[in-house]
Specification:
There is one protein chain. The protein is α+β, with helices and mostly antiparallel strands. It has eight helices and seven strands, in the order H-H-E-E-E-H-E-E-E-H-E-H-H-H-H. The strands form three sheets. It has a three-stranded antiparallel sheet. A two-stranded parallel sheet has the order 1-7. Helix 3 runs antiparallel to helix 7 (193-199) and helix 5 (164-177) runs antiparallel to helix 6 (181-190).
């Protein structure tokens, strides 16, 4: 077998169609850990939907994986609680089917059924439950490790400082936040998945600054 034949076979293997499980495995090889980036009601740390999305989206795009979600069953429950102005607190419960679809063969997919619920005084409960279900399905499909810091990882070392590039990108996001939420959103989406993962713990404070800048009178920030 000559070198040219080896190269041709290698190209054929690279070009061979991959099923959804091979594509998910490729993402698993590229991504193995996501850091918990938010504090819930001051009680425990958790990883947010945005952090998971920032981590995996570039790899899903690269490997041709599309997500589709169906609601299998749902119900709205009145909790009996109300806000100070009388708005009722509702609880939305649902079972979702989260499909990971092979972009090149839509009939080839993996599906995970996830139960999720959320409470809200307005109309956001279904969206919150949906985000929770998608996040949970992605974490389970990719067997992603989550932790509060790098010390919690098997074989992990001490928490590292931001690199020079990450510091520069963080400053760009801080500058964007001074122009409000829309400017921050555009700047955040322009960052690479790797940078967004590294800066995910900063996102809450950036959003808070952007919200304040947006609500402040012109020139007061």
């Amino acid at each position: 077998m000559n070198e040219e034949t080896d190269i041709t076979r290698g190209e054929q293997l690279e070009a061979a169609p991959r099923n959804i499980f091979q594509r998910l495995n490729a993402v698993q090889q590229a991504v193995e850990y996501v850091k918990k980036d938010t504090r819930v009601e001051g009680k425990y740390n958790a990883v947010t939907h945005d952090a998971v999305t920032a981590l995996v989206r570039p790899h899903f795009v690269k490997h041709g994986i599309v997500l589709n979600v169906n609601v299998l069953e749902s119900r709205v429950i009145e909790t009996g609680q109300k806000s100070s102005n009388g708005t009722p607190l509702i609880r939305y419960e649902a079972r979702f089917a989260v499909h990971f679809i092979n972009m090149d063969d839509p009939h080839n997919y993996a599906v995970f059924e996830i139960d999720a619920h959320a409470n809200d005084f307005g109309d956001k409960a279904p969206g919150k439950a949906l985000s929770y279900a998608v996040k949970g399905a992605v974490l389970k499909a990719l067997y992603l490790e989550t932790g509060e810091n790098d010390e919690g990882r098997a074989g992990g070392g001490e928490d590292r400082e931001l690199t020079e590039e990450e510091e520069l990108r963080l400053q760009e996001l801080r500058d964007a936040s001074l122009n409000g939420m829309k400017a921050l959103e555009v700047a955040w989406k322009s960052m690479s998945g790797k940078i967004r993962l590294a800066l995910a713990p900063q996102l809450a404070s950036l959003k808070e600054a952007a919200q304040k800048a947006q609500e402040a009178p012109n020139g007061s920030v």
